[in-house]
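Morning run. Coffee first, then this:
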Amino acid sequence: MTDMIDMANMPKGALHGIKVLDLSRVLAGPSCTQVLADLGAEVIKVERPHIGDETRHWAPPTFSDDTSAYYATINRNKKSLTVDITTPTGQTIIKQLIADSDILVENFKVGGLKKYGLDYDSLKQSNPRLIYASLTGFGQTGPDAARPGYDYIIQGLSADEYHGPSDGEPHKVGVAVVDLFAGLQLTIGIQAALLSRQNTGVGQHVDVALLDSALAMLANVGMNHLASDKIPPRLGNQHPNIVPYQVFAGEGEQHFILACGNDSQFAKLCTMLAVDWHTDERFATNPQRVANRELLCSDLTKQFAKQPRTYWLEVLDQAGIPCGAIHNVAEALAMPQAQARNMIVNFTEQGSPVRALGNPIKLSASPVSYRTPPPQLSEHTDSTLAKLGYDSEMIAKLKADGIV
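And here it is:
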């Protein structure tokens, strides 16, 4: 685990000086803005007064300061400002912040911010350099644009039928992978827009949809259909294009993954097992192995049942054949490699009990930083408003009126 770094001696982040107004909530949008924040951007998270982001209440579990684990997943390095954007005064505050912002991120329903004068067409008039990033279920155009989007629903719409065991019901991916993948796509779009703005001086609207992201994530499975016009079968833990590339069980039903990605690795496997399948015309090449998948994998299953998993992982690794154990979460995070790569972050030096999953981006000259833990609700409201010129009496009145 890594503790909080010494910010005084750290190089500035790659996005230092970039200001982000975050009007998004839940997972997809905030996952994007956390990446931007980790990279050095100043991110102000706008939340509803007294309620905040829904994920603040998605518990248990929580840390000892009552911060929900879900909220802490995607909200570090941000400031929390509470504003009721449905009020004219609240809209004025948001527009004041936008005047000095580089990026606005939102995940409201299409057209949902127009009634408040906070849509892209309205805001670009006063801040033409603004990069306005929208993340919705179905995008800004098309017949389904107005529909709300949820990760689980989008998984189903984007060929979730493909996931799960061949003889069971379809399965969703355990983590909200569509939300997270769309958040990364939004991050990429924003950074591309920043680069474009350097050349043009003008911002633009970045439009990312959960459905589009999920369909793009079909990758080779979607391409298999486009190439053959066939609907790929559900294969569970097996790979549609490579054999053997799946889960097997050692003696005592201890599972592990075998991943033979080419004919050479398969030949090494056969040598290790003292069999001649690599010279058998049914299995000599990967296309032949795919065609005879059931026969080959049935024989491999019998072979691997003869020894425990620890034995197979050792001999496979020695033979240079890709393999790996199947970990639970605790085992995964305890791996020495995960520790060496600082994939667990402690905020103890900031007086917070929160521990967080680290950022996988490693930059040599402008590394990511973990400056502050996820903020408490409205923690930065007073300081943010003060920078806009509001004095203590004005702030007190805004609070009394329920606007912040």
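The chain has two domains: 7-217+345-400, 245-326. Good start to the day.
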